[in-house]
């Protein structure tokens, strides 16, 4: 069971939109951007408030890649593996991040909740390939060395 | 302030023009995603400081003194060279500007009107003072992207000053809705989202529906890897797209518009929100626009990371709060689209074409481009090409002009191999297609499509089998799973392609790929499924030799496919230090100290750690 504050926050977000199904996605997007993940309890709660059944809400939330039922790390790193980045060797960038974080296929968040790694198909910054974003800040023309520097910097900033 | 009628709009526009004219010098700092990433915010800050100081100076020297004004403009489309700064009125364009350069620019170009030579764009030994003279721009025809980078995307008055909302005004006061539909039909504007369907015909069908509620939907879910044209319009000239949507609303009798933007475009979302708020405040959106009977509202929906939502019926389902899955048609979107009401669904670029057609007329529009595909097309030029970025050319421009004249040729002067057009739904164009005039119809004949307009240039070092695998991986990931051909078929095709790049493919694999590809193309439910196999079929047709090399000779000439590579130690360079052997995770390297070591190819897992660790460069990777 979540703390009451979570439900209050959900109520606040719901009141900014409305209680019909077409607001389901915007509402859970706002919840996710606030908590950096979508607590499953809140999804059930939102479904109840919107008068749709839980299975429906769940089917929608699981369909879209952006929703995560697991808490994400402090830094969400998205590595672009779109065509342009791929052609410009984004795989080497990804490998370097695996090295830095110990993450890999099937493991997306570090145990200390500092880093979450995601790959995306295109960030729309192909001219700067290969790119990655850290909490939506774009880091252009990455190299494995620059990745290493970036992690030094992020780790340094945590304290 | 709300604009109540035509006269008031005219007055506001005149004031806006005045406001835009006043400063003798303008410093435009690019605030597109690319340039922001390059640190343009700091440059903006520095110029603001300098310009603030300048105001003091102007007081001292009298009222006539020029003062510079810093703007946040949209993308200049020259992403590779950012951050970009442009100085008006001389239009000096500076590339790769750093914070430290600001003072010098201010001193030289604002005080003395001279260019800072070292920051000018240089190509093949020639320096170009202004943006317009650079071949990358000179060879383009910028109509849709005309304002991008030239006006402040966050200020509705600047859009008004350059003639914005004139088309809406003309439509509302001088044309009947039927006449608007007629004009768009006459122009033969075709949907820029990929299919090339006639926009006017779509509008006509929606206009004749008897339903009271109709919707205008804008597809800004630009998900194709390698495409970013729509993003640039949404970020650089959001009002143009809004104006196009409003005109569509007036023409077909719709009261509400929805823009579906992918969540990966936060700047586009915030710019559009601001544009909508400003238009509402000005009375250009909302009830009784400009005092007429026409009311129109625009809503924004953020995507949530599903590529398939770029498909019309999936997109409308997503706006309704459902899973974004396509449905069988008919009924078509024009009859039962969003909320099961008649809906006009076009993409960003298509709407952005509308105002100029209404302003200058269908006859003028048809003078641009080709007979079957009038107008221009924006492409995102990326990959192994010297100048990457957003380009706009008349339909019918040939590939050679795009890759060589505008793009400056292949990067590092490696021979050209192919262009992947239209992303994961498109095909590849090869050297023999360089002279083909690109438009909807000519590409169809080549089994490719404009798609959303991504152009990824590939050079000789690109492995086409790996490219095909990459696209299939993408499509397979994004398959929504509703229909079997796409869900299962793409999975099987991907399995086969993965086998081929891992050196486990056979000649029969190629035939199976073709059979599967054709079956999926013929039977998938939606456009995405139907086109999913195109990249594979297209590379199989154009680069069969390369596939055969992979399956028969187990060799990848480009050196891309790791599994087909062999790491070897050059005996003449090896000093026998044993560093490689100590670093090898699978103990595949052995030898005597001070004598050349050897790699056991049977044990080698091709991790490359020996190559990274060799102090003498004695280890090579061979195909």
Protein architecture, described:
The complex is a heterodimer of chains A (159) and B (623). A four-stranded mixed beta sheet of chain A has the order 2-1-3-4, with helices on one face. In chain A, helix 1 packs across helix 2 (24-35) and helix 1 (4-17) crosses helix 3. Chain A starts with a helix and ends with a helix. Chain A is of the alpha+beta class and 159 residues long. Chain A has helices at 4-17, 24-35, 40-50, 54-63, 83-87, 90-101, 144-157, and strands spanning 75-80, 115-120, 132-134, 137-139. In chain B, a hairpin with a 5-residue loop joins strand 11 and strand 12. In chain B, helix 7 packs parallel to helix 11 (238-252) and helix 8 runs antiparallel to helix 9. At the A-B interface, helix 2, helix 4, helix 5 and strand 4 of A face helix 2, strand 11, strand 15 and helix 18 of B.
Mean pLDDT over the residues of chain B? 89
Sequence of strands across the biggest β-sheet of chain A: 2-1-3-4
How many strands, which pairing sense, and closed or not: the largest β-sheet of chain B?
Answer: 5 strands, mixed
Tally of separate helices of chain A: 7
Biggest sheet architecture of chain A: 4 strands, mixed
Q: Largest interface, per-chain counts?
A: A-B, 37 and 52 residues
Decide which structural class fits the backbone of chain B. alpha/beta
Count of DSSP helices of chain B? 25
Work out the helicity level of chain B.
40-55%
Summarize the entry for a quick read:
By secondary structure, chain A is an alpha+beta fold.
């Amino acid at each position: 069971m979540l703390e009451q504050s979570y439900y209050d926050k959900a109520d606040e977000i719901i009141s900014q939109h409305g209680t019909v199904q077409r607001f389901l996605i915007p509402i859970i997007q706002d919840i996710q951007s606030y908590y950096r993940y979508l607590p499953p309890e809140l999804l059930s709660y939102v479904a109840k408030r919107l008068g749709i059944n839980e299975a429906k809400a769940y089917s929608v939330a699981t369909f879209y890649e952006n929703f995560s039922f697991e808490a994400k790390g402090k830094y969400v790193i998205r590595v672009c593996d779109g065509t342009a980045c791929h052609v410009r060797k984004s795989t080497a960038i990804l490998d370097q991040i695996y090295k830095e974080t110990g993450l890999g296929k099937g493991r997306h968040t570090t145990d200390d909740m500092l880093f979450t790694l995601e790959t995306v198909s295109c960030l729309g910054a192909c001219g700067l390939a290969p790119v990655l974003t850290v909490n939506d800040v774009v880091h252009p023309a990455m190299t494995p060395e620059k990745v290493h520097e970036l992690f030094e910097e992020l780790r340094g900033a945590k304290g | 302030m709300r604009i109540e009628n035509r006269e008031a709009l005219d007055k506001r526009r005149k004031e806006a023009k005045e406001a835009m004219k006043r400063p003798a010098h303008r410093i435009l700092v690019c605030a597109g995603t690319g340039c922001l990433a390059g640190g343009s915010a700091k440059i903006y800050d520095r110029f603001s400081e300098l310009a603030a100081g300048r105001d003091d100076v102007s007081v001292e020297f009298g009222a006539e003194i020029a003062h510079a004004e810093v703007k946040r403009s949209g993308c200049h489309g020259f992403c590779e060279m950012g951050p970009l700064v442009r100085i008006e009125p001389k239009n000096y364009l500076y590339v790769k500007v750093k914070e430290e350069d600001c003072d010098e620019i201010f001193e030289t170009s604002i005080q003395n009107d001279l260019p800072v030579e070292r920051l000018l764009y240089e190509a093949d030994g020639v320096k170009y003072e202004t943006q317009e003279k650079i071949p990358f721009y000179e060879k383009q025809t910028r109509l849709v992207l005309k304002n991008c980078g030239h006006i402040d995307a966050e200020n509705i008055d600047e859009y008004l000053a350059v003639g914005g909302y004139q088309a809406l005004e003309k439509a509302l006061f001088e044309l009947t809705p039927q006449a608007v539909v007629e004009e768009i039909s006459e122009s033969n504007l075709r949907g820029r989202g990929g299919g090339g369907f006639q926009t006017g015909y779509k509008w006509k069908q929606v206009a004749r529906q008897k339903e009271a509620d109709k919707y205008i939907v804008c597809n800004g879910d630009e998900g194709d890897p390698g495409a970013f044209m729509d993003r640039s319009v949404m970020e650089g000239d959001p009002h143009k797209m809004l104006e196009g949507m409003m005109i569509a609303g007036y023409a077909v009798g719709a009261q509400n518009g929805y823009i579906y933007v992918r969540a990966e475009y936060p700047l586009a979302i915030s710019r559009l929100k601001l544009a909508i708020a400003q238009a509402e405040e000005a009375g250009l959106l909302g009830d009784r626009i400009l005092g007429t009977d026409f009311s129109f509202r625009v809503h924004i929906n953020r995507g949530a990371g599903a590529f398939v939502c770029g498909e019309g019926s999936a997109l409308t389902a997503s706006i309704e709060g459902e899973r974004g899955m396509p449905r069988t048609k008919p009924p078509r979107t024009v009859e039962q689209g969003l909320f099961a009401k008649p809906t006009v669904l076009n993409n960003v670029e298509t709407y952005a074409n509308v105002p100029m057609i209404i302003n200058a007329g269908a006859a003028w529009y048809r003078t641009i481009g080709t007979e079957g595909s009038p107008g221009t097309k924006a492409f995102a030029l990326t990959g192994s090409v010297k100048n990457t970025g957003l380009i706009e050319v008349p339909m019918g421009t040939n590939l050679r002009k795009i890759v060589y004249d505008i793009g400056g040729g292949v990067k590092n002067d490696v021979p050209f191999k192919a262009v992947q057009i239209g992303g994961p739904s498109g095909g590849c164009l090869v050297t023999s297609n360089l002279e083909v005039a690109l438009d909807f119809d000519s590409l169809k004949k080549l089994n490719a499509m404009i798609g959303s307009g991504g152009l990824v240039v590939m050079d000789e070092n690109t492995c086409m089998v790996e490219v095909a695998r990459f696209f299939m991986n993408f499509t397979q990931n994004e398959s929504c799973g509703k229909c079997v051909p796409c869900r299962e078929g793409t999975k099987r095709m991907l399995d086969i392609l993965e086998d081929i790049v891992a050196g486990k493919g056979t000649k029969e694999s190629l035939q199976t790929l073709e059979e599967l590809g054709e079956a999926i193309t013929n039977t998938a439910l939606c456009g995405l499924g139907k086109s999913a196999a195109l990249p594979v079929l297209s590379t199989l047709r154009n680069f069969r030799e390369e596939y055969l090399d992979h399956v028969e000779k187990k060799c990848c000439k480009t050196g891309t496919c790791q599994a087909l590579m062999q790491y070897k130690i050059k005996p003449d360079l090896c000093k026998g230090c044993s560093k490689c052997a100590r670093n090898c995770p699978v103990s595949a390297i052995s030898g005597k100290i001070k004598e050349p070591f050897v790699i056991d190819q049977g044990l080698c897992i091709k991790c490359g750690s020996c190559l990274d660790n060799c102090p003498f460069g004695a280890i090579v990777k061979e195909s």
